[in-house]
Design a protein that fits this description.
By secondary structure, the protein is mostly helical. Helices cover 74% and strands 0% of the residues. The longest helix is centred in the first third of the chain and has 18 residues, at 95-112. 41% of the residues are buried.
Length: 392
């Protein structure tokens, strides 16, 4: 979805007009630079900043932050990092401003990626986080940046405990709460994820991680229409987020939009080629669409990514059973159950192998009986997943 920038462009033009009449007005100039960056007019932003630099030395505040923002708008990540790193070490400015500069640098390092990204981001932020007790005030941006570092490092329990301590002390900011909600989701703490995402969205309705958590929770809680609405909104807001597209694929699958699920999962595999779950979701969608050849190819790709995902082996067992390759089905079934004895795909494959002579509806009924004792995180019976297949 393309944002209509016409009002912002008009405001920028008005600001430029005022600035032409009062070129020494720094407040006007700062506002114009920010608006130029907002609308993507990078050349105007750079010109306005260069004009101010030519009239005298630029103080770290606010010009250092603006310089970094203009550099980033130009795509010069190294220059932006250099600017923020200098500010983080500048004893002439306040501790909060230095922590904000360090936070910006840490988050940019995480976005840029690379093998040392998490270590470098942690090193950047550590001086402003270590030794700060939960009851002490700390800028929301610094809290959120630290939690993102912990999340990227897969320090889920440590990051969540840190956030929960600040929450208990009344010191957790809304941005940080959103990041913490996603950490809680990945740590399988559904209750904390739900509470923290609500906390974040109450103040910041578009907070990214909180939206991801809320959308994922709608799937866990078995609310197909809510899940569809939230995940459509999520992919519109974060079109380059592979996790958002995977969740949208699941939501469409739950609402029986198989073609829509195929598109969403395919996009997820493009954005996250190393995520076995997205390949598995796409394969399962193709299986339901009766394209067994493509489903098998996709599951083979999922195995290249992760050979220890029980559902992938179970889904292959389903395909082998449905195509009469019983020996291969039994081998895949053994591998699947060795990884997770109770996974859904293995139960369904077993029903197909045990009763190849029965009509499809009767096989479904047997699979439902096998699954009846299992529960999803929402408390629903796992057999409820088969309703989708029955309706096809």
């Amino acid at each position: 979805m393309t944002m209509d920038t016409t009002p912002q462009l008009q405001r920028l033009q008005r600001l430029l007009g005022y600035l032409a009449q009062d070129p020494a007005n720094d407040l006007l100039r700062r506002d114009a630079i920010e608006h130029a960056c907002d609308v993507g007019d990078v050349e105007t932003a750079r010109r306005l900043l260069d004009e101010r630099a030519a009239s005298g030395a630029l103080a770290a505040l606010p010009w250092g932050f603006l310089s970094a923002r203009v550099a980033l708008a130009h795509g010069d990540v190294d220059a932006a990092l250099h600017q923020w790193d200098m500010m983080a070490c500048d004893a002439e400015i306040g501790a909060q401003e230095r922590s904000l500069a360090a936070s910006a640098a840490a988050q940019l390092r995480l976005r840029r990626g690379g093998p040392e990204a998490v270590t470098e981001a942690a090193r950047t932020l550590a001086p402003f986080i270590e030794g700060v007790v939960a009851q002490a005030s700390l800028a929301d941006a610094a809290q959120a940046a630290w939690l993102r570092v912990e999340h990227h490092a897969r320090h889920l329990r440590e990051g969540l405990d840190w956030a929960l301590a600040r929450e208990a002390a009344g010191q957790l900011g809304p941005e940080a709460a959103g990041v913490a909600s996603l950490i809680a989701m990945d740590a399988n703490d559904v209750a904390s994820s739900s509470r923290l995402s609500r906390m974040a969205l109450a103040t910041l309705p578009e907070q990214g991680e909180a939206l991801v958590s809320a959308a994922a929770l709608s799937l866990v809680e078995g609310q197909p229409q809510v899940a569809l609405t939230l995940n459509e909104r999520l992919t519109a807001a974060r079109p380059a987020d592979g996790r958002a597209w995977t969740q949208l694929g699941a939501a469409r699958l739950l609402t029986l939009d198989l073609q829509g699920a195929r598109v969403a999962y395919a996009r997820a595999t493009e954005l996250m080629p190393g995520h076995a779950g997205s390949w598995h979701g796409l394969a399962w969608t193709m299986l339901l669409l009766e394209d067994l050849v493509e489903a098998e190819r996709l599951l083979d790709q999922a195995l290249v990514v992760d050979r220890n995902f029980a559902e992938t082996h179970g889904a292959l067992a389903v395909i082998y059973a449905r195509t009469g390759r019983r020996a291969m089905a039994n081998d895949a079934l053994r591998r699947s159950r060795g990884l997770d004895p109770n996974n859904f795909a293995a139960q369904y494959a077993q029903a197909l192998l045990d009763h190849p002579e029965l009509p499809g509806e009767e096989v479904m009924a047997l699979a439902s009986k096998l699954l009846d004792g299992q529960q999803l995180p929402s408390g629903q019976r796992a057999s409820s997943l088969l309703r989708m297949i029955r309706q096809l």
